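[Q] Does anyone have a clean structure-token version of this?
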Amino acid sequence: MDTKFSGLPVFIWSVADLLRGEFKQSQYGRIILPFTLLRRLECVLEPTKAQVLAEVERCAKMNPDAADKILLNKAKLSFYNTSAMDLSTLGETQVLDNLETYVQSFSPASREIFEHFRFSEFIEKLDEANLLYVVANKFANIDLSPSTVPNYEMGLIFEELIRRFAESSNETAGEHFTPRDIVRLTTSLVFAGDDDVLSKPGVVRSIYDPTAGTGGFLSAGMEYLHELNPQARLVGFGQELNPESYAICKGDMLVKEQDVKNIKLGNTLSDDKLYAETFDYMLSNPPFGVDWKKIEKVVKDEQKIKGYGGRFGPGTPRVSDGSLLFLLHLVSKMRNPPKGLSAEASAKAGGSRIGIILNGSPLFTGGAGSGESEIRRYLLERDLVEAIIALPTDMFYNTGIATYIWVLSNHKPDERKGKVQLINASDMHEPMRKSLGSKRKAISEKQIEEIVRLYGNNEASKVCKIFDTTAFGYRRITVERPLQLAIYPHDADRLEALQADKAWSKLDADLQQSVLQALESLKEAYLSRDAFLSDLKNDLKLNTSNLKLSAPQTKLLLKHLGEHNDEAEICTDKKGKPEPNPDLRDNENVPLTEDVNTYFEREVLPHVPNAWIDESKKDDKDGQVGIVGYEIPFNRHFYEYNPPRSLEAIDADLDAVTAEIMGLLREVHS
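[A] Here you go.
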């Protein structure tokens, strides 16, 4: 921010001195932000205020829509106010009534902002504390006219006030406000790939945040583009669930002369208010690990009805964490670039870039065939993932967990096609002088530049790894081993467990007695299931009038009397094929880059020679043996083994400590 304007946020925030004692610190922003916005709006309206007032009486008799168009035309802006009052003419009596009338005189889109700020509620509290006139008068004396504070600088001032508000209520700030350093880094990474295109004169692009919060990402995108090309224009779009954050975001966009109709209130996942729109750039910091049980039916109904024609065709994650739903939502908003064009030509004609902050769960949660794995598969097989950057811990206001920036693009340059770049920036930080909630670390501007440089160079190093997209894929094959049963008809513990089974208690008493008598006559142990069943059958036939056991009854006996034994005969089915032992069933993850049979012969058969692959378990999409899965084991690729100290070194340290302790004891006793 220009030093000419850098003192304004401090001066405006000094209103907090008036509020101290009557209001909580976390409430300061709820008063200061709407008053700042109100003062800016009336300063912007001042040049055309007389023309608007001249039309008010005539428009009162007209259709509201027609009147709105006329008044907007007279104001030469996207909003207007039909009251002759302003903050300086509220008077010293009836200030509350006059101020409420004044705010209600704004055009609907801007008036709604004050409603979501709950402005009326807070000015009532100010009035009760005899502070309303004083606060209103202080703001009335701040010159926020565009000639004094241009739009760009006003946006920065408002953003600085938002930051102070978030920090003053840092116990909940993380839900609605992303720290400035993270915003700056994410924005720089997403825009860095298109710097050449964005620097051209007259360029117009769109930016979107489905979890807009207070508008930090939208503001940062506009700031970045302004620094790169003051003549370029970025049109902001967003949606936010929290009404107060929505009001702050909408107010910020109004200050920046954006069309506030592009900022929507509501749940993005269950009620996408911008369902028909696509965007050039998308930035988001969705809530970490928040369940989506309340909207599960809506999401799954969309998935079922629209499939890949909707947002959630690739799959849905477990209901305990909806982060990947936001990622799929963003992907659905990408503009498809024309085929056959270069990366630069695609950027001009279409294509999108995404920057989204996620926790570690979306990298690896869920095995092959799960919703999470299928979403990763969709992204990687369509070559949308460009880079993933690991951030330091303790970077956010309300959590200290590890987080990652995902950068996605559907118009990758040739050198990045089929590749994913991993950057480990977890050690790139500096301690904060004062913690803000859980935020104890910050990324400096110099460190941001270094991370962006690593991303731009796209070269392998100690902190940067580059992989083919297929490197993260595998096939989960099912490995079976034969059923080999040793059976012990006389084992007392096994017989006791058999008779305690509920299924046994349902058998006829005569049948129970016949079976137990038959078991007594058999051998102590069998290493062949067929031999055991044959002897049992013959005994029952001989002694109980040709009694036969049903399949469930036979299974009950084998369950309790048998156990696996590698020396036992292999059990086979009617076709002579080995039967699998469910208790020994296992899975192997075969890299997509390897042949399944080659891997099996090398890694499995040397250890279990009689194992085989269950070839009935095939992938639904490609029909090949093994279920395809994808995971990104980020930390594994950057793990560095540190060997433990030698035993000699440890013994030496122990001897030294022991000698020191003995010396101290001798001093005590001397």
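[Q] Thanks! Anything notable?
[A] The chain has a mean pLDDT of 90.
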